[in-house]
Every structure is written in C-alpha cells, then in structure tokens.
Design a protein that fits this description.
There is one protein chain. The protein is an alpha/beta fold and 550 residues long. The longest helix is centred in the C-terminal third of the chain and has 19 residues. The radius of gyration is 23 Å and the shape is globular. Helix 10 packs across helix 11. The protein is built from 17 helices and 20 strands.
C-alpha cells in the first residue's frame, strides 16, 4: 500500500506565514518558529512555496537559482535547521519545483542572451512568421502574447506565463539533466516531498503551430511526451527512494491523463492537483467574472474525478484553497452569517473523500478574502494585468474592483493571522500585503471561532489516521442531483461511511438510504451529535458523517 494515503499536507506560503526580521515579509525561520503549531494540528508534511533566489515578479515562481535560498527568506543554514526541526516533530518538507520555466534573470537565460548557443537551446526560441508577426498566436496565461523578443536577434522566446518567465526546452536532454541535478540536490538534503508546478506543460511539440481557438492551451497541455519526461525524472531521482511524496500541478488536465500521471504502475507521480472544480464560478469559462457558483457542476466534477481516478487507480490531491485561489469560505459559503458551519462543512467534504487532503494556511482558522477597497492594496501581477485589461475594455472602476475582490490571487496571500495584536502578529514591521481587517476576531491566539474551526480540522486529520476506509476506501456519490446537498459513501472491507454536506444557508432534507437505518453511528459533524433518521434535516451549511461496521 502506498505510504501517502493517510497523510495530510499543510501548505505554508513563506512570504505570508511569519516574519521574524521585521521587514514585513515572512521567512524560513518564521515557519520554523511555528512548527509546534503545525505539529499540534497533526499534519505530516509542509509544502513550502518557492523560496529560491528570484526577482519576485511572480512571487518566486520566476526562479533565478534552483539550489539557493533567496536572502529575503533567510539562508541555506536556516533551511537546514527548519528541515531538521520539522523531522524532530515527525513532519517532512515538500518543496515547490518550478521546472517549466526559469526567470529571465537566471544564469542560463543570461548566457543565452550573451550568444551562447548551448544555453539558447535551453529555451524555446523561434523566428517570427514571414509577415513579421509572432511565431504563433498563443496567448500567455497572464494575458497578452506568449512570445517576447529575444534581445535584438530577431527571434522570439516562449513564455506561457509572465514575460520574465521563459519556458525551458525539455526536448533538450541537457535541460532534463539539469532538472535531475536540481531534484537530487534537495533529495540529498533530506527533502521528502515535491510539488511540481504546471508540470503537464513541459512537453512542447517540436513544431509549434497556430491555435485554431486563438489561445493555444490544447497545443501544449498534456502532450504525450510530458509523461515520458516525468517518468525519466522519476527514474533518475525520487523514484529511487520509497518514501517520497510527489504531486503534479496539472493545468486544464483530464481524468484520463490524471490516471496516467498518478497510477503507481506508470512510475510518474504520487498524485495530482486538478482545478476544474474551482472554475464553477467562471461565467462562460472566464475567470474575471462574477456569478454564483454552479453547485450541480461542482458536484459533477468532484464525482467525475473521484470515480474516474478510483477506477483507474489514480490518486487525487484534495483541496479548496491554495496561493492562487480565493478563499473557499468566501467563495462557496457564508463566512459572515455561518463562519463555523461554512469552514467545517467545506473541510469535511474534502477530508473524507478519496485522496490526500491539503490545508492552505489560514483555512484552518477561518481566514476570509480581505475585500480590499482600492486597487493599490493589491500586488499580484495577474491581478494588475487584469485590472489594466478590464479598464481598456471600458469597465468602470467599481465593476473592476468587485470582480477583483472575488477572484484575485491576493485573496489567499494575505498574512497569516496569528494574534489580535497589530498586523495580526505576522510582523513587527509593515506587511508586504495588507492584513484583512477581521484579524482581531479571526486569529490563532484569541479567536474563539478560529480555535473551534481548528479543533474540527484536528478531528478530521485524526479520523484519516484511524479509519482505513477514509484513507483507502472506495467512493460512490448518492443522490447526486439533490439541489443543495453533496452526499457520498466510502467503503472498504471493514467499514462504510456516509457523508452528507449541505452547501446552502437554508434547511435541506435528505432521504437516507434504507440500508443505513440500522447499525450506523455518528462519526463527526458540525452540529450536535444525533441519530440517523429516514428523513434527515440538515441545518444551514451542516455536515454530518455516519459510520457502519460490515
């Protein structure tokens, strides 16, 4: 049996977690300082977003040196201390590997610019079309064309993200060898986990062509060769160990590919992140829009991935939140009127599914979107680009701010709320990103509600360790077309678990399957314990689970 099925992983965004120097930015020593808090929560592994040397154009996802620590986060010695201290407390570290692209400040790109042919082959350079236009009509994920002039050579380089993030040419064996060296460097230090950023985009075709849809995603996503590249990386690095956990961030992937990436027989990755369930509030598929989330679509997607990955022996990473997503309680619930119920219902929905749950810093205490008043409060590059584009498209300021309040990546990047003291106890200086105004009531130290939510998370984490049916059982949805409830069954040879979640702020009735009316006992719920009845009345945002021995 795989070693990661009963694990729970905590994502710490170092820049916003805890500042120990007073410069307003979190650091590695801040993560180390809070290890007792994470150990108490019961998590097994801490995923750290990039802390490598970087110009920080995309908050560290523009890496200038993969085997370094950026001075803003501390030193390599600080990293080694953090790793050692985490291990003492029974926790391991998972590092973020940004291997699809480097910063244009990276030594390789600089050498390429200086004319070194070897390093020019590290990147994807193309001539313009005969009419002088870009090599292809692809659009960058951050808006605008996906090509930028390569100095004054007349050529262009590909950047699927920001212009300062140049895509690497994985078809070049020397590039793949460099990636092997990077992963080995951290493995040898004792790192036990890797999260691979946009790893399903590394397999570009040799011949790049125009996209019929004028965007191009389908021409560089999940290409068959990406699987070959990941298998090779596995074989030469983490696959040589039996205790490494890997997760691939898979942009716009499919269940079929998800199975290939994560089925143990394929020797690629332990599990994958897919994002379709977090696009159910995108009007016509567009991010910068406002609409109520489509609950039926949300259930359909969760069910498709749960059932599909289970059938194909793939493995899901389970999550609502991360550094790129708005806070799920602000998005799918009502943190104003039902803060405890919303946070715990969303947590239980995910934690009792088949897969490995990820907790993003602050969700376990009920942190919300900050609802900033001004565009000047935001710092995220994608948000700034969207603001400019929407302005050019004739939107007025009020409309733009409304949509940015809902969808900006900065929603989740606000400093961790540790205490009711100034700047939420995150820093003694001026925080790099404004602290939400609700920190006096939502915080680790004195927030009564925050502590209640965190205690619930602890119970969910404990249940995964205690019940094999949660960590390894099968999954089956029931009454999938219910207007306000998502319910499912988990089953193994010893137990069955029934999980019922009300996603709305009104009472909902659930007709319990006949076979559950005998022998079931209450497992966990965010309302007072009760028995199972034929017609179960769920309160607003109520979640409840029952267990039955076989």
């Amino acid at each position: 049996m795989e070693k990661f099925h009963d694990k729970v992983i905590y994502q710490a965004y170092p820049k916003s977690f805890k500042d120990t120097t007073g410069n307003g930015m979190g650091d590695l020593n801040g993560v180390r300082e809070k290890l007792p808090y994470l150990a108490d929560l019961g998590v097994d592994m801490i995923w750290l977003n990039p802390f490598y040397q970087s110009p920080q154009n995309d908050n560290g996802y523009d890496v200038a040196d993969y085997c370094s620590v950026d001075p803003m986060f501390g030193t390599m010695e600080d990293f080694d201390d953090l790793l050692a201290e985490a291990k003492k407390r029974g926790m391991d570290l998972m590092l973020d590997m940004v291997l699809n692209h480097t910063s244009t400040a990276h030594e390789w790109f600089q050498k390429a610019l200086a004319g070194e042919k070897k390093y020019q082959d590290y990147y994807i350079l193309r001539e313009p079309k005969e009419d002088g236009s870009y090599p292809t009509n692809w659009v960058s994920k951050f808006g605008g064309p996906a090509w930028a002039p390569f100095a004054d050579t007349g050529k262009y380089y590909l950047h699927l993200f920001d212009e300062t993030q140049a895509d690497l040419n994985w078809r070049n064996p020397e590039v793949r060898e460099e990636m092997v060296k990077v992963v080995k460097f951290w493995l040898e230090k004792g790192v036990k986990g890797f999260r691979f950023d946009v790893i399903n985009l590394i397999g570009k075709d040799e011949e790049l062509i125009d996209a019929t849809d004028g965007v191009g995603k389908y021409l560089y996503t999940d290409r068959p060769i990406a699987h070959e590249f990941i298998r090779e990386l596995n074989e030469k690095t983490y696959g040589q160990y039996d205790d490494i956990i890997t997760v691939g961030e898979m942009s716009s992937t499919t269940v079929e590919n998800g199975i290939k990436y994560s089925n143990p027989e394929q020797n690629e990755l332990s599990m994958i992140f897919s994002f379709h369930h977090l696009k159910v509030d995108y009007k016509d598929g567009e991010k910068w829009t406002i609409m109520p989330f489509d609950f039926q679509e949300l259930k359909k997607i969760l069910d498709e991935w749960q059932a599909g990955m289970s059938d194909g022996n793939g493995w899901n990473a389970l999550f609502w939140n991360n550094h790129d997503q708005p806070r799920s309680n602000s998005r799918f619930g009502d943190p104003k009127n039902y803060p405890f119920e919303t946070a715990t219902m969303l947590a239980q929905t995910i934690h009792l599914l088949r897969g490995t749950p990820y907790i993003y810093q602050g969700e376990e205490i009920g942190m919300t979107n900050p609802n900033y008043e001004n565009i000047s409060d935001y710092v995220d590059i994608e948000t700034k680009n969207a603001y400019r584009e929407l302005k050019e498209n004739g939107w007025d300021e009020k409309e733009i701010l409304e949509v940015i309040r809902e969808k900006s990546r900065d929603n989740s990047r606000t400093p961790m709320q540790w205490a009711e003291s100034e700047h939420a106890g995150f820093t003694t200086g001026e925080p790099w990103l404004k602290v939400p105004e609700n920190y006096r009531t939502i915080n680790v130290k004195s927030g009564k509600l925050s502590n209640e939510i965190r205690d619930y998370y602890k119970q969910l984490i404990q249940l995964r360790k205690e019940y094999a049916v949660i960590s390894r059982g099968t999954y089956r949805a029931i009454q999938l077309d219910h207007a306000s409830i998502y319910a499912y069954l988990r089953e193994d040879e010893r137990h069955e678990v029934l999980v019922v979640n009300n996603f709305y702020g009104k009472i909902a009735l659930f007709e319990v399957p006949e076979e559950w009316l005998q022998g079931a006992s209450h497992l966990i719920g965010n309302h007072p314990e009760r028995n199972l009845e034929k017609s179960l009345e769920l309160q607003p945002y109520e979640t409840i689970a029952f267990v039955k021995k076989k």
